[in-house]
Write a structure and sequence with these properties.
55 residues; mainly alpha; DinF-like
Length: 55
Amino acid sequence: MVLVAIISILCLFTLSSSHGYVGIWVALATFMSLRALAGFLRIGTGMGPWGFLKS
């Protein structure tokens, strides 16, 4: 999740300075998409509190 936050913050700074409010929305959409992907990866691999899914 730290990696997701770093990528999202870099996108936020880059896109907001070049595209204004549209860039902010794109960066927030990127943040939410990366968080969803990270969550699905955690569930799929059974890491974290998802051990009961493998049994």
